Amino acid sequence: MAEPQEEEIKYFVRVRNTDLDGTKSVQTALTRIAGIGRHTAVTIAQIADVDPHAIMGKLDESKVERIRQAVENYAVSVPEWMMNRPKDIYTGETRHLFATEVQLAVDEDVNRMRKIRSYRGIRHETGQKVRGQRTKSTGRTGATVGVKRKKD
Q1: Contact 66/79 with Cβ under 8 angstroms?
Q2: Residue 40: which of 28, 51, 53 has the closest Cα?
Q3: Residues 89-107: tens digit of each pLDDT
Q4: Which of 31, 90, 102, 128 has the fewest other C-beta atoms within 10 Å?
Q5: How far is CA 35 from CA 4, 61, 119, 139, in A?
Q6: At 102, which helix (H) or strand (E)?
Q7: 93 Cβ contact list (under 8 Å, min separation 6)
Q8: Is the pTM here over 0.85, yes or no?
Q9: Could you give the CA distance from residue 122 to residue 46 in angstroms, rounded to a whole number?
Q10: Do 15 and 44 form a contact (C-beta atoms < 8 A)?
């Protein structure tokens, strides 16, 4: 009686300059790319006509190539409300950013806020909380002392 031969698994699958874990499902592996969350990953799998629960490393090369194409053409395939960069400040168009583009865009936005001296830009510069959180008791860094006692 012959034993069934196990499929070879690729431990790393390269998509959009990112190594994805081949031991995880397609929808989980795709979330390793910056700019792709769980909902986007499932949508990309549907566009590529691939089972989102299939193991990434066991997919044949044609399916992986379809996933790559779906990632590249994501912005064309989905409505505007599903994109992560609505109304880009410089071009005015709606885009979806992936991988290093996301971090570059965030850095660019922060630098623009610093340059125009907006409230958020100044908070970024000084390393303080930006989004309205309390700062009296949290977010202390450095040699900040806690509660001071009254002298008797």
Answers
A1: no
A2: 28
A3: 888 889 899 888 899 999 9
A4: 90
A5: 39, 23, 27, 27
A6: helix 100-115
A7: 87
A8: no
A9: 43
A10: no
Counts for the chain of helices (H) and strands (E), in that order: 6, 2
Q: pLDDT, tens digit, for every residue of 112-132?
A: 999 999 999 999 998 889 998
Residue with tokens 């012959």: 2
The full length of the chain comes to 152
What confidence score (pLDDT) does residue 144 get?
61
Q: Compute the distance between CA of residue 70 and CA of residue 81 in angstroms, rounded to an integer.
A: 18
What is the rounded CA–CA span in Å between residue 127 and residue 19? 32
CA distance 51 to 120: 43
Beta bridge partners of 12: 21
Sorted by sequence, the CB contacts under 8 Å of residue 130 that are 6+ apart come out as 120, 123, 124
- The label of the residue with tokens 């410089």 reads 90
Q: Where would I find the H helices in 10-99?
A: 26-30, 38-47, 61-72, 74-77
User: CA end-to-end span of the chain, whole Å?
Assistant: 89
